[in-house]
Design goal:
mainly alpha, Ferritin, rod-shaped, DUF4407 domain-containing protein, transmembrane helix
Length: 431
């Protein structure tokens, strides 16, 4: 019988195109499963390394738990992508494709959550922890420099105290020569001026004693910082370096606290407040009432000047105290997995590799979907018999012959049914 539908030239080319693609897919299917298994195993290995970095215990049970988790990840990755590679290219309706596409997205998120971040921890965990150490060193350095700056600013108050002390000493010398109250000698006004100059001299000496302590603390802090920087780049396991780094961080935090306590600004502020409030007025010792009146007026003027100088000194101390304090820096040990997440922006290539090893089969799913769509498009308009290959046609003819032979050949295995002879009746003989 002639074929009622004869293929056009375009349809014939589409059939040949579809057969060519099917041939390529047949060859690719020979190793696609193996390749998917290799990717799943590689993901499981890196997942195992990532899980190990999270476990504190190195015993047999922890190793078994890490192995079990990594095996589960490998099996899950292999099974999930096997389902997608088979089912997604085969479905045709938009609704089914959207459903499988959503499922694939959800499964990809699950794979990233249970595997990819651990893979990234295995790939860049040590580098991420070293990055955390380097960031901590910078924070400690900023705090140390800030504390030193405040301490030096407080030490600079020594010049303000010296200037006020010198002004009172100069006034006392003027009083000794009679250029202040008009009465030469070391009387009541002279003693008031010398009293305040002596107080300021003691404060100045106290501030001066702090300078070597500030310099020594800052120098020791820089030495600790140098050691901490060396620990961030030294070879060897980062866990061992983190332990020593933590010890150095504790020492440095103590030095920063010491520098903050060495600031003399609060001391200068209290001294300035007491400068005008705690004046011991001597008895006026002039020989007559006019001179005693002159002494009292001069002492009043000295007290006004003293209050002004105290206010100036107090404001200078408050300016230093108002400077922003160094930030409280505390080193917190961190695991490699947490460090990779915390500093993810610095390890984009590692994250990309960790995710790609898990989600690369998704690209194969889309390749297969596009190829199957092209095959279906090439066969569109052709009947089933037009798409049969020569081998398929021969196989179909052979099957038809076998069926026809089976129908025409009589069954030799079933014997003929036996026929029974008719029963003979014997007449009775009479005796």
């Amino acid at each position: 019988m002639d074929n009622p539908h004869k293929l056009t030239q375009a349809e014939a080319r589409g059939v040949r195109y579809a057969r060519e693609l099917e041939g390529h897919l047949g060859w690719l299917d020979t190793f696609s499963g193996t390749a998917l298994g290799v990717l799943a195993v590689a993901s499981g290995i890196y997942t195992y390394l990532g899980v190990q970095s999270l476990l504190d215990d190195n015993g047999a049970m922890s190793a078994f738990a890490a192995i079990a988790y990594s095996v589960a990840v490998s099996v899950g990755v292999f099974v999930f992508w096997s389902y997608m590679l088979r089912l997604f290219p085969a479905v045709r309706s938009p609704r089914a494709r959207m459903g499988l596409l959503g499922t694939m997205g959800l499964g990809s998120l699950a794979i990233v959550a249970m595997s990819s971040w651990l893979n990234a921890a295995a790939l860049a965990g040590s580098a991420a922890v070293e990055q955390h150490l380097a960031e901590t060193v910078q924070d400690y350095q900023s705090s140390l420099e800030r504390a030193h700056e405040i301490a030096l600013s407080a030490q600079g108050l020594e010049r303000d105290v010296a200037r006020v002390r010198q002004s009172f000493e100069d006034l006392s010398e003027q009083e000794a020569t009679g250029n202040l109250s008009g009465l030469a000698g070391r009387g009541a006004v002279f003693r008031v001026l010398r009293q305040k100059a002596s107080e300021l001299s003691g404060l100045e000496a106290q501030i001066a004693t702090q300078t070597p302590l500030v310099n020594a603390a800052f120098a020791e802090g820089n030495q600790i910082l140098s050691r901490m920087r060396a620990l961030t780049v030294e070879p060897g396991p980062v866990e061992a370096r983190s332990v020593e780094f933590s010890e150095q961080a504790v020492r440095l935090a103590g030095l920063i606290t010491q520098l903050r306590q060495l600031s003399v600004a609060p001391l200068v502020e209290r001294a300035a407040q007491d400068l005008a409030a705690s004046v011991v007025l001597p008895e006026l010792d002039a020989s007559n009432a006019a001179d005693r009146t002159a002494q009292g007026a001069t002492i009043t003027s000295v007290l006004d000047v003293l209050a002004q100088r105290a206010t100036t000194l107090e404001r200078a101390a408050q300016t230093v105290m108002g400077m922003p304090s160094p930030s409280d820096t505390t080193y917190t040990p961190i695991s490699s997995a947490d460090a990779v997440i915390l500093y993810a922006r610095n390890f984009v290539p590692s994250w990309a590799g960790a995710i790609a090893i898990d989600l690369l089969p998704g690209v194969l799913v889309f390749i297969l979907a596009i190829t199957h769509g092209a095959i279906r498009s090439g066969r569109e308009g052709a009947s089933i018999e037009d798409t049969l290959t020569l081998a398929e046609l021969r196989a179909a003819v052979a099957v038809m012959r076998d069926i026809d032979g089976a129908l025409e050949r009589p069954s030799k295995d079933s014997p003929d049914e036996p026929t029974e002879a008719p029963a003979q009746i014997t007449p009775l003989k009479s005796s």
